[in-house]
Specification:
It contains 9 helices and 5 strands.
């Protein structure tokens, strides 16, 4: 077992926000390798978030964001398990980042299950009328439409969107990562986006 210094533990804590013991264990497992230890902590955090998914999240914050000269505004409610986490500056930053994401990307829903059926029907009809789809047999049309719709949902569903500050990570991954880090569920409950003249 490698001798792990307090300096290395602090470096890993700064990178991950994990507790001292979690950092020490990960560093011991990897022989002091910071990158491998960071990967272990992130993986464990995601596993912890999956276990927390069914727990109640009745605390949280509402954030308001007004973009630029006041032409776009967002209200978003993000829930967590305790008021202790709700008051945490990192949780507040997460909620604000989600508000920024909504302002920038104008999602139609939080998750795929909450997408309006009328919106889905309209999208399917638009794809079906495209020349390259309409000329195909019905079975192939349906596969093409489903594929295009899945791609479109990744653009317009908040949880599936790439994070505007880190495009390698989706909003769903960001929320799970923070949930694992805080040790309690985090859920985006609702949002409203206003755009001047629309």
């Amino acid at each position: 077992m490698a001798d792990i210094s307090a300096t290395v533990i602090k470096q890993l804590r700064d990178r991950t926000g994990a507790g001292v013991m979690d950092c020490r264990k990960a560093l011991e497992e990897t022989g002091g390798d910071l990158d491998k230890s960071e990967a272990i902590i992130k993986r464990r955090g995601l596993e912890r978030a999956d276990k927390l998914a069914d727990r109640e999240a009745s605390q949280g914050l509402v954030d308001a964001y007004v973009h630029g000269v006041g032409n776009i505004g967002v209200l978003v409610e993000v829930n967590c398990g305790t008021d202790f986490v709700a008051r945490n500056p990192e949780f507040k930053d997460l909620v604000h980042e989600i508000a920024l994401q909504i302002a920038a990307t104008n999602p139609v829903a939080i998750d795929v299950d909450s997408v309006d059926a009328a919106w889905l029907d309209k999208e399917r009809a638009a794809y079906r009328s495209e020349a390259d789809v309409a000329s195909k047999p019905q079975e192939i049309q349906n596969k093409i439409i489903d594929g295009r719709l899945q791609k479109r949902l990744q653009e317009v569903v908040l949880m599936k969107q790439p994070h505007i500050k880190d495009p390698d990570k989706t909003i769903e991954e960001l929320v799970k990562e923070k949930s694992g880090k805080f040790g309690e569920p985090i859920r985006i409950r609702r949002f409203a986006r206003f755009e001047l003249g629309k």
